[in-house]
Amino acid sequence: MSSSPTLPALPWLEPGDVFPPVEQAWGPADPAPGLLAAGGVLDVPTLVAAYSQGIFPWYSAGQPILWWSTDPRMVLHCHAVRLHRSLRKTIHKLLLQGRLEVRFDSAFDRVIQACAHIPREGQNGTWIVPAMVQAYIQLHRAGRAHSVETWIDGELVGGLYCVNLGAMVFGESMFCRQSDASKIALMALVSFCRAQDIPLIDCQQDTPHLSSLGGQLMPREVFSRHLQQATPQPAPVWRFEPVYWKHLLSEDGERA
């Protein structure tokens, strides 16, 4: 009789415990590649410690907190991002008509709640459980999490929230109630990061949607080295200026 394969050990964290080295995360042959640990808490110090090491929480209702460090890592190289031609035209038109406004942090709670509850194709439920919502609201109040909001005709129609440590931005989730609204928010974030000399936006996991926007895979070892250099740097002032659109909307090399 054959025995079931033995799962690799998964560290259990008590509040205040340090994270294991990211190299100990489950590998590609394991049931959940990138899974590093379980347990712990979602308070501000723990989340800051996690993100500074390239670790993020991701779990569903009924599960303990699960901590991940994926390899490779999906990232956006901000200066390599090129707008699709149709999105460029949409943004130009909305700006010329005076209908589009990008705001930072004016409605963080609404953005994260929308990300948690907006229906997503092929998904039942959400990983942004109530405890995660409250944790990131506290992280926002501590100045470490931010919302990028697409307002059209005075209505909040899309956006995203992210984590910022020094010169590193970690994208979390987006929502959209109007065509292209979440993409506009992401491109606004890219424009802001360019203006602030922030080279990378972490997107955590490989998805076709992110690939279509210019996301690329980066080995975890390279990503970790970048974090060590970027996170100790001064954090930017989170304010969006319309001039930030200039280079992204005028440059050559657009995507079809």
Automatic annotation (TrEMBL):
<keyword id="KW-0012">Acyltransferase</keyword>
<dbReference type="GO" id="GO:0030163">
    <property type="term" value="P:protein catabolic process"/>
</dbReference>
<dbReference type="GO" id="GO:0005737">
    <property type="term" value="C:cytoplasm"/>
</dbReference>
<comment type="function">
    <text>Functions in the N-end rule pathway of protein degradation where it conjugates Leu, Phe and, less efficiently, Met from aminoacyl-tRNAs to the N-termini of proteins containing an N-terminal arginine or lysine.</text>
</comment>
<keyword id="KW-0963">Cytoplasm</keyword>
<dbReference type="InterPro" id="IPR004616">
    <property type="entry name" value="Leu/Phe-tRNA_Trfase"/>
</dbReference>
<dbReference type="Pfam" id="PF03588">
    <property type="entry name" value="Leu_Phe_trans"/>
</dbReference>
<protein>
    <recommendedName>
        <fullName>Leucyl/phenylalanyl-tRNA--protein transferase</fullName>
        <ecNumber>2.3.2.6</ecNumber>
    </recommendedName>
</protein>
<comment type="similarity">
    <text>Belongs to the L/F-transferase family.</text>
</comment>
<dbReference type="InterPro" id="IPR042203">
    <property type="entry name" value="Leu/Phe-tRNA_Trfase_C"/>
</dbReference>
<dbReference type="InterPro" id="IPR042221">
    <property type="entry name" value="Leu/Phe-tRNA_Trfase_N"/>
</dbReference>
<dbReference type="GO" id="GO:0008914">
    <property type="term" value="F:leucyl-tRNA--protein transferase activity"/>
</dbReference>
<dbReference type="InterPro" id="IPR016181">
    <property type="entry name" value="Acyl_CoA_acyltransferase"/>
</dbReference>
<keyword id="KW-0808">Transferase</keyword>
